[in-house]
Amino acid sequence: MKSTAGNSGVQKKKMNGYVGFSNYPNQVHRRSVKRGFNFTLMVVGESGIGKSTLINTLFDSKIFPDREEMPPSAEPAKGVDVTSMSADIQENGVKLRLTVVDTPGFGDSINNEDAWQPILENIESRFDAYLAQENRVNRSKISDNRIDA
């Protein structure tokens, strides 16, 4: 940095490098790539239609383990269960924390009239938890586990 004094008593400084707000997008990009990204995905559908296969193929990872086939005489599970599985994926130096929310039991009953209710409650509770974190005085460690897609 060079400093020059003018007649008006104001010091002008000339920068030797590239500094300024125009570099801010590059800084944000580098910081985001360094920290990694979080992505929460919910899959909803009847058993056996390929939700697990889609996710495993899409992310080229074994996120969902292979499930054993239920014999026809087995008692089907009652109601919808909402479960989460997380995996850390790294590609070309970029880290991704993938959370997949699965809904086993959705659509498997004869009467599916209220099958969507546990799913809706789960989504709303995630948004409520995020809002509670946003309303705190100290918001430095906010974990966002809302459903992205």
What does this structure look like?
The chain contains 3 helices and 5 strands. Strand 4 (83-91) and strand 5 form a beta hairpin. The strands form 2 sheets. The protein has a 3-stranded mixed sheet. The protein has a two-stranded antiparallel ribbon with strand order 1-2. It has 149 residues and is an alpha+beta fold. The longest helix is centred in the last third of the chain and has 18 residues, at 117-134. The mean pLDDT is 81. The protein has helices at residues 24-35, 51-58, 117-134, and strands at 2-5, 11-14, 37-43, 83-91, 94-102. It is elongated, with a radius of gyration of 25 Å.
Architecture blueprint of SSEs:
Blueprint: E1 2-5, E2 11-14, H1 24-35, E3 37-43, H2 51-58, E4 83-91, E5 94-102, H3 117-134
Parallel strand pairs: 3-5
Antiparallel strand pairs: 1-2, 4-5
Largest sheet: 3 strands, mixed
Mean pLDDT: 81
Please work out how many helical segments DSSP would assign: 3
Low confidence ranges? none
The helix/strand series, from N terminus to C terminus, equals: EEHEHEEH
Distance between the termini: 48 Å
Task: State the shape.
Answer: elongated
Gyration radius (Cα, Å) is 25 Å
Proportion of residues in extended strands: 15-25%
Tell me the structural class.
Answer: alpha+beta
Number of strands: 5
Main features:
alpha+beta, two-stranded antiparallel sheet, 3 helices, elongated, 149 residues, three-stranded mixed β-sheet, 5 strands
